[in-house]
Write a structure and sequence with these properties.
Elements lengths: L1 H22 L2 H12 L13 E5 L5 E5 L4 H64 L4 H49 L5 H97 L5 H58 L1
Antiparallel strand pairs: 1-2
Length: about 350
């Protein structure tokens, strides 16, 4: 247990010494080695982890590990402790700076959320209710566009103001730096109080510049969000306008269909009235209708049959007469042609 404890202590010491050795700059290491060479024979081995060659009287070279004294170890430990404290302070400062940045980001996010909620409430109060009351109205869309343009114009004006303030602060900072440079060139000695006052004023100006930059960044982000919201509402407005146009067209088609159905309904009602009148008339006739006797029906049937036979006979006679007429017409045509030929021959004989 003692050996392992001693080994752990030696490991810690070796790590600390190695860390110290690595932190040393090359020039510090060189100066340290020169000072050691000028020291006594006891101080020749007072460098961290150094092997020095010494020649004995018999000139036999030997390697000998020279250990650090307790005072040197305490000095190194004290310097390492101070370096560690400085590292801790530096890390603490960096952590505080990071924490302040995160807090500033959170505060900026809260401010942005409040601004966005306020903008949404104003938009719903001024625009959405009007659009809800006047669907598909051109006035509502114009009002939305005017509202968005006013918001963008307001953001641009505010951004320009912040930019001008930032530029003025930069000019003041540059002027102060030039004055300080001139004083340094002229050799004017600044008192400690003046130097501290300038540092305080410089820090204040830097804080103001940082605040203006943060405000400018916030305004840019707000303008970007406003543009995104504007584009979103533009898309919604376009969708609503297209839907309104489609609904108006659909309503027109429905009205035309309704008018057509109403005309067809009127025609159907008229036809129904006519059918009802005809039905009543037929029912009335059916009510007063009397079936004739069977013998009358038989006699009528026989007479119809006889008339049909007579019609067929007369149709046959007509066909025969037509055939005779055609034969007479052919004979007549032949006789007519013969008479013409005869008349043509008679003048020739008279002329001879």
């Amino acid at each position: 247990m003692k050996t392992s404890h001693a080994n752990s202590i030696l490991k810690l010491e070796a790590a600390m010494f190695e860390k110290f050795f690595n932190r040393m700059e090359p020039r510090d290491l060189a100066s340290h080695m020169v000072s050691e060479k000028q020291g006594s024979s006891l101080d020749l081995g007072q460098g961290p982890f150094q092997r020095l060659r010494r020649k004995s009287k018999s000139r036999i070279p030997t390697d000998r590990l020279v250990c650090l004294t307790v005072e040197q170890k305490c000095d190194l430990a004290q310097r390492e402790l101070e370096e560690t404290k400085e590292d801790i302070q530096r890390m603490k400062k960096n952590s505080e700076q990071i924490l302040q940045n995160y807090l500033a980001v959170l505060e900026e996010a809260d401010i942005r959320i409040v601004d966005i909620k306020k903008a949404i409430a104003d938009f719903e109060k001024d625009i959405v209710k009007t659009i809800t009351k006047k669907k598909g109205s051109i006035i509502a869309s114009d009002k939305v566009m005017r509202y968005m343009e006013e918001k963008i114009r307001f953001r641009d004006v505010l951004k320009e103001k912040i930019r001008l303030k930032n530029d003025s602060l930069k000019v003041q900072k540059k002027k102060m730096q030039m004055q300080l440079k001139q004083k340094e060139e002229l050799g004017e000695a600044l008192h400690e109080v003046d130097f501290q006052q300038l540092k305080i004023e410089n820090a204040q100006f830097l804080e103001k510049i940082e605040e203006r930059n943060q405000d400018l960044l916030r305004q840019k982000m707000t303008v970007g969000n406003a543009l995104q919201i504007l584009n979103c509402y533009k898309r919604k407005l376009q969708t609503a306008t297209a839907m309104a146009t489609r609904l108006v067209k659909d309503i027109t088609q429905r009205k035309d269909s309704l008018e057509k159905i109403e005309r067809e309904f009127i025609v159907v009602v008229q036809e129904r009235d006519k059918a009802e009148i005809l039905n009543k008339k037929l029912r009335k006739q059916l009510a007063y209708y009397k079936v004739p006797p069977v013998l009358d029906y038989v006699h009528e049937k026989i007479e119809v049959h006889e008339l049909e036979n007579t019609i067929k006979i007369w149709e046959r006679k007509v066909e025969i007469a037509q055939m005779a007429l055609q034969s007479y017409r052919s004979v007549w045509q032949k006789a007519k042609m013969a008479s013409h030929q005869l008349q043509a021959l008679l003048p020739e004989q008279v002329a001879q």
